[in-house]
Write a structure and sequence with these properties.
The longest helix is centred in the first third of the chain and has 21 residues. The chain is of the alpha+beta class. Strands 3-2-1-4 form a 4-stranded antiparallel sheet. The N and C termini lie far apart (39 Å). It is built from 5 helices and 4 strands, in the order βββααβααα. The protein has 2 domains: 104 residues, Double Stranded RNA Binding Domain (2-Layer Sandwich); 34 residues, no CATH class. Helix content is 39%, strand content 19%.
């Protein structure tokens, strides 16, 4: 079944795009440009819906795209509203999960603030880097 959720894309301080799903708690990702941000948004949406389903968590219904006010949604962020947009992101979760992950889990981790700042400045994809590091560590 195709799932579609509204997402807000905005240019971040590093020149890439941050993506937030207003309806899905903790669902945020980023990409170095609009294309990569959309790819990451699809992955984020699929991962969120897939893990929520497996964990038997209630999955919220998507909001109407037209009801999302960018000005209001981004008021607490230091972003140029002219470089922000909203769009629907869609994914067929079952098919996506077969080819991209068996079961994703959300992890909260803590890193020093200076390391976060430097990694963002270097445009490092945190999820990808953590996965690569874990795979390397496991296969040593």
């Amino acid at each position: 079944m195709l799932s579609m959720y509204p997402a807000v894309f905005y240019k971040n301080e590093l020149g890439g795009y941050t993506v937030i799903f207003p309806d899905l708690k903790y669902a945020i990702t980023e990409g170095k440009d609009e294309f990569e941000a959309m790819e990451m948004a699809v992955d984020c949406l699929a991962g969120f819906l897939y893990t929520s389903s497996i964990d038997e968590e209630e999955i919220p219904k998507p909001s109407d795209l037209q009801e999302i006010n960018l000005q209001e949604f981004l008021k607490d962020k230091d972003v140029n509203i002219k470089e922000a947009f909203k769009t629907l992101v869609s994914v067929e979760v079952e098919e996506y999960s077969k080819s991209h992950f068996k079961k994703s889990v959300r992890k909260t981790l803590t890193i020093p603030a200076w390391l976060d700042k430097e990694a963002r400045k270097a445009k490092i994809n945190f999820s990808k880097t953590l996965q690569e590091a874990l795979l390397k560590k496991l296969h040593q």
